[in-house]
Amino acid sequence: MANGRPPDPADWAVMDVVNYFRTAGFEEQARAFQEQEIDGKSLLLMTRNDVLTGLQLKLGPALKIYEYHVKPLQTKHLKNNSS
Fold it and tell me: Where is the SAM domain (predicted)?
C-alpha cells in the first residue's frame, strides 16, 4: 500500500482515485471522478478526450490531470504489466 492505496492503479477503488487527485492538489476536480464512479481500472482506460470533455472539468485543470497524472499512470501500468 502506497499512501493508503494499492500500488497498482488497476486495483484502486473509486475513493483511492479521488484521494489520489485530492493529494495531487485537485480537490475540486476529484469530485468529478467520484460522481462518475471512476475506479482504477476505469482511470487506466480513460482517453484524453474522456478527461477533457467527459468529466466536465475546466480545460486547464483537465489538461494537467491528463498529461501529468492519467497518462503517466497508464504508462507505468503498461510497463509493469508487459514483462
Answer: 12-60
Which sequence spans correspond to the domains of the chain? 13-82
Residues 6+ positions from 30 with CB-CB distance below 8 Å: 17, 18, 19, 21, 22
User: 13-82 maps to which CATH number?
Assistant: 1.10.150
Cell of 30: 476529484
One pLDDT digit (tens) per residue for the chain, 83 residues? 667 788 899 999 999 999 999 999 999 999 999 999 999 999 999 999 999 999 999 999 999 999 999 999 999 999 988 86
Find out whether 9 and 44 touch, Cβ atoms under 8 Å: yes
Q: Report DSSP state, residue 8.
A: S
**pTM score over 0.70:** yes
C-alpha cell at 78: 503498461
